[in-house]
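Structure (tokenized):
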């Protein structure tokens, strides 16, 4: 992505505030249901991890309690008056040009939601404190019960997910949301940092690590004394899930998406697809080494009884008892 001056199209403080109160509040805050015991649910995962499906599930659960507020930067940027124009001009820079105002609206929406004591669902790429740790602290201090769901997804899958989402948007709308590799990789690392902070911290009440397809691989919650009910292991669960062997379904889905994009996307995208394939090959090789169920057999020294030992050509016999050794020394039995 081209380096841009993010302040170039930034709105004045007055215009930013006016749009927030006149356009965003009526759509996001006005319909929300105030709660005596509000909850804030954070859905974390690197860009391209596939948060939409899990977000729908969490949103449906929150709607059983009333209408929640959804805090999502991607839903707020389009309120910028020039967003559509910027997308038409260059979809690789429009997000950066509108990020200052989008983040300002996101901060205001979080604060207003907390003050109104409404349930909140927030998606986070977990790239830094402002995207996860600070919002979690905000709702914890406001007396919310805070839950976090983390999508644990290998880098090859999420990098391909970024391209797939972009190309789908291009085919449907003529332009799409581009996420550069540095942002993806920063959030990929940030997920582990945030999971580690959850393990060590006290602001999150429940944490769940999820595989694509909404399969729970780890869950922990606070005990009565405020500590974790079981030994904290969110970070370890994310790492283990990222590096496990892929299922047959995952391999097939990846191959089908990769092949489709390889043929559909232009020459400028082929290098990124090559890198994604290299990531996939590297992950497959690493998983084969780590999870080879026969490795312990093959690395155990071979010392046969009644036959030659590997690499020596010598016959290996059972060890003699002391009595046998004494008799052997006197020549008994020879």
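Design, position by position:
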């Amino acid at each position: 992505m081209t380096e841009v001056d993010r302040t170039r199209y930034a709105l004045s403080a007055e215009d930013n505030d006016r749009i927030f109160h006149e356009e965003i509040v009526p759509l996001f805050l006005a319909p929300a249901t105030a709660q005596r015991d509000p909850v804030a649910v954070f859905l974390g995962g690197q860009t391209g991890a596939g948060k939409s499906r899990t977000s729908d599930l969490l949103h449906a659960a929150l709607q059983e309690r009333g209408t929640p507020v959804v805090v999502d930067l991607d839903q707020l940027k389009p309120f910028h008056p020039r967003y559509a124009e910027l997308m038409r001009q260059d979809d690789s820079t429009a997000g950066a040009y509108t990020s200052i105002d989008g983040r300002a609206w996101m901060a205001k929406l979080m604060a207003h939601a907390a003050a109104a004591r409404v349930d909140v669902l927030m998606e986070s790429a977990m790239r830094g404190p402002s995207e996860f740790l600070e919002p979690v602290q905000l709702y914890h201090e406001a007396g919310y019960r805070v839950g976090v769901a983390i999508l644990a997804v290998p880098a090859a899958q999420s990098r391909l997910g970024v391209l797939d989402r972009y190309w789908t948007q291009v085919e449907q709308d003529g332009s799409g949301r581009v996420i550069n590799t540095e942002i993806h990789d920063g959030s990929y690392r940030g997920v582990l940092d945030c999971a580690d902070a959850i393990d060590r911290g006290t602001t999150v009440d429940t944490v769940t690590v999820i595989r694509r397809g909404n399969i729970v691989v780890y869950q922990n919650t606070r005990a009565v004394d405020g500590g974790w009910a079981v030994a904290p292991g969110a970070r370890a669960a994310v790492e283990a899930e990222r590096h496990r062997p892929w299922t047959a379904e995952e391999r097939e889905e990846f191959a089908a998406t990769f092949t489709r994009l390889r043929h559909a996307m232009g020459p400028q995208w082929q290098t990124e697809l090559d890198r994604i394939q290299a990531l996939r090959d590297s992950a497959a090789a690493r998983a084969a080494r780590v999870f080879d169920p026969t490795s312990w057999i093959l690395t155990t020294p071979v010392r046969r009884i009644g036959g030659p030992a590997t690499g020596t050509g010598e016959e290996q016999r059972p060890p003699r008892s002391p009595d046998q050794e004494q008799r052997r020394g006197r020549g008994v039995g020879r």
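Reviewer-requested clarification: DSSP finds 14 helices and eight strands in the chain. The CA atoms of residues 262 and 268 lie 11 Å apart.
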